[in-house]
Amino acid sequence: MVRGGAWRRRLSTAGFYALAGVFMLPTVFVFYWMLTLSLKPQIEATAYPPSFVRFTVTLAGYREVFTKYPFFLYTWNSLVVATGCTLLGLAVGLPAAYSIARWRQQRLAVVILVARIIPGIAYLIPWYIFFRSLRMVDTYGALILTHLIVGLPIIIWVMISFFEDVPADLEDAALIDGCSHLGVFWRVALPLVKPGVVATAILSFVFSWNNFLFSVILAGRQTRTLPIAVYNMISYEEINWGTLAAAATLITLPVLLVALLAQRHIVTGLTFGAVKQ
Amino acid sequence: MSARRFSRRTFLGSVVAGAAAGPFVWTPARAQGFTWKRFQGKELFLLLTKHPFIDVLEKNIPEFESLSGMRVKWETLPEIQARQKMTVEMTANSGGIDAFFTSLHVEKKRFWKAGWYHPLNKFLADTSLTSPDFDWNDFTPGAKAGVTQSDGSISALAAFVDANVFFYRKDLFGPKGLTPPKTLADLEPLVQKLHAPPGTYGIVLRGLKNANATQYPSILFPMGGTYLKDGKAALDSKEQVAALEMYTRLLRQYGPPGVVNFNWYECSASFMQGQVAIYMDGVNFASQFEDAAKSRVVGKVGYAVLPSGPGGHFSPIYITGMAVSSQSASKEAAYLFTQWATNKANMIRELMAGVGVGRTSTWDSAEVKAKPKMPADWYQAYQASLKIGRQGLPEIVGVTEYRDIIGVAIQKGIEGAPAAQVLAQAQKDFQDLLNRTEG
Predict the structure, then answer these.
(1) Which of A59, A111, A245, B428 is deepest in the core (most CB within 10 A)?
(2) Does this complex have an ipTM over 0.85?
């Protein structure tokens, strides 16, 4: 009886992992393909059908990424811009989302969403004129501000629902005990939505990290970000696959690291139940 | 006595004054002769495109800086992104770009209508601005036509000239005693003889819509077809029907599987992997064919001029040039750069690196002959193609839209739709486009 139960449990665990594996396979396979491509010489990269197991390993692609292009500068630029955009986005977005959730400012929320719906390219020319007259083209400031148009609406919209889930009774209790509205937001609401903050921070970071369009126009040689670096491998009638895949692999790594490190905070938390309904 | 002394003093005084004023007085006289140093101390900003021509040129920009005494800053972006940046900068009227690399086969009329090219006619005629050895007439007629607008204004100096040529596998032709086709009528039987799937497919050409529009004229022009007739769309002529039938039949019957979605990348990759016997595309691909790190057919590729047909003998050409921005504050200085970038010395360097250029004098250059990077038949095929070069795409504002229109027709044709039927639709769409954007 007991052994049968253990077996069943083990079987269901195996089934879970098998199913998870099946669903993950397409995603993981693409990464694997990218990785093999980054290690292949060009002549094997273009072979058809492609070989995923046996191929000549070369680090030429990685070498080229670091020797032919200022890859560290691009990485630094991307880090500064994505971090700046995320921090500024949180600083503005969290109070905004809290206020929208608490005082039901639905119209405001829709207006913010519209900013996200409008295709980014529509902003480019006005922005360019604007930043040029402020002499801000090719500065981190311009990139961080423009990336907010992508990051901020996401932060606000995701956080609205998180703040709505915070029981109003908890906040009322804090207010009765003499806490200010700002104090309630800072000491009560914010700690309870920490998992949401981490999740949106990752999203905002990734969106900024991957943003290409704004960086092409508003960045110069000193502030160019990583996605543009990948496009450097595409020339007229020629694609340098090994180098391109090497750059893509290197660009993906930091994002994966950030997501893995932050994941812990998403899983824990959510310890609601402070109020009995 | 005192009068003489006075006059001597005045004379001396005037000499001193003359010496002091010298640099200013002499400026017009100095301008009469050409000098690279004329704009010494200025700074230029260039918007360049990721391109083999630019790869070679970039390395030599410091040489221009020391020659001219100017400082040059530049940015190199992939073509599409460069075009986006260009559009934003020019629409914002920023004046930030002095000179730019321009794909005339796409941008020629669009940028010209927008007024972004500064016309170079006066600069070229001005002996104080144009180096005596520049020689405008050294460019082939096709290259000159490619940079000249319908009103005669010259929008750019031709840099890279891509011509469509005939690539074939010598190692497959040789044993069977085959030679490159002289006419279109020879082409199909030849392809048939070489077609031996799955090891070798007879021919590959671009099948994907939009991309295929630059290879289609390799058949269309010798067939006698044109894009426009008296300013009206001419996509439903009988020459067009014959050309589209042939292009699509070749790919349907003798192309590798999936060719209907092949862009240049898939085409050149399948050729370099040794899977195809014949490929017609831009001459520029050859430098990849002959690179052992990228190709399995090094030394096995033959190069020939495209076959002729009932309509004549043509090679579709695509020109990229160096242009001066109409918004630049230093147009003359920027012109010095464009002139240097396309001068004989730089063009020889390009040709030695295997990048095709449109200057006749470079073909017989001793330097190129002494150290050829490419096989001899590549140079021959390229020269012969330039002589019969014709702009490969219609010179209209909506080039990209046209490419989509004909591209869809070709794709449908490859999938088996009758040529006359798909071209009737394309004709209608193309005329609509012309009505909307031209005139």
Answers:
(1) A245
(2) no
